Structures are given as structure tokens and as C-alpha cells.
Amino acid sequence: IDFLISGGPVMVPIALASIVGLAAFLERAVVLRRARVIPRHFAVEVESLLEQGRIGDVQTMCKKDDTPASRLVTTALASQGEPRAVIKERLEEVGRREGAELERTSQVLGTVASVSPLLGLLGTVWGMILTFEVIERQGVGVVSSLAGGISQALITTMAGLSVGIPALVAYKWVLARADAFVLELEELSLVVLDHVAGAAEDKEPSE
User: What are the percentages of helix, strand and coil residues in the chain, rounded to 5?
Assistant: First the structure.
């Protein structure tokens, strides 16, 4: 508390930004767990079951876990019998929505990473203004009077950077992890699309 007070009023929004950034990061860390997006070996199991023609088993497996991966597979299976282009379009639509959901609160981290150093700079300017006001009133001879403004300026700069740098690292990590999952979901979509569309094309000549 003493540290926050010594930094002046600008420390309040910096502290709030740190809390918001931490909350956003923890929320994304939970959401972006592999088990919540595309469980390990899920794609392998789906492909194996599709090759055996066990569509019902695939649907049952998808119903057990409500994840972006299972929703993509369910969308493809629900479109069986449709032309390949139609199935692909539906998968792309669902994929875009799932990808946006994976990055939903990442912009909060980006905002915190950008705003926190600026708030620190604002506090620095504020502290320097106080310092010059002291100089104007008392001159440069009273060192103890000048130390308060200079200390406030340095504290806010440090606080802004201390919040902004971890927030930037967390923001990049969230984007990288989300992009990696999106790539895996795209690969899974192509696998399912090839099986579903291929099965539909094989049935057409016999009809």
C-alpha cells in the first residue's frame, strides 16, 4: 500500500490493469488447455474409426466431450451426403467461429501490455511536474523536497513496465498457442472432410 501511495494517483489504474491482465491470462490459460480444445490422440482415433466406417462410434465420442474439435467433427458428420464444397464451407464457418473463440479475450492482454507503460510514462510526467513546482517554490537547494517528485516519477515508470512486459509476453503466448490449436483443427477438418466427402462420392455411382 505504501508503495502504491508513493507512486501517486497513476498507480491506481496501473494496479487495476495488472489485475485485469492477470485475470485475462488465467482465463485463457484454462481455456487453451489441450483437453479443452483438441484432446490428445483425438484426431487419430477419429480417423481410425472413420476408416472402419464406424460413424456411430465417432458421434458417441464427440458427444462425450464438448470441445472445438468435437464440434467440427459433428458438423462434418451432420453434413453427410452433401457436396464436398458445401461441407467444406460449413467446416470453415465453424472453424472461424471456434478460432475467434480461442482468441476471445487475448486483446485484453494486448491492451494491458500497451496501456501500462503509457500509464507509467504519465506518472513520470506527473512526478516531474511536481518536482518543477517544488523547484519553483523552494529552489534547488532543498534536496529532500525534490526527492518526492523524482521518486514518484521513477516508481510509476517501473510499475508500468513491470505490468506491461509480462502482459506482452502473455499476449504473445496466448496468440501462439491459439494459432497452434487452429492449425491442428484445420488438419482435423481436412481429414474428416476427405472421409465424409469421399464416402458420399463412393455412394453416388452405385445409386
Answer: 85, 0, 15
Are 185 and 98 in contact by the 8 Å Cβ rule? The answer is yes
Distance, in Å, from the CA atom of 149 to the CA atom of 129, rounded to the nearest integer, reads 8
CA dihedral 200, 60, 66, 40 (to 10 degrees): -90
Place of cell 488438419: 187
Cα 192 to Cα 52, 92, 138, distances in angstroms: 13, 13, 77
Rounded CA separation 167/116 (Å): 9
pTM: 0.80
User: Which of 167, 172, 143, 202 is closest to 14 using CA atoms?
Assistant: 167
Q: What is the pLDDT along the chain (207 residues), one digit of tens a residue?
A: 676 666 778 888 999 999 999 999 999 999 999 989 998 888 888 888 888 888 888 888 888 888 999 999 988 888 887 888 888 888 899 999 998 999 888 899 999 999 999 999 888 888 787 777 766 676 655 555 566 667 777 888 888 999 999 999 999 999 999 999 999 999 998 888 888 876 545 454 444
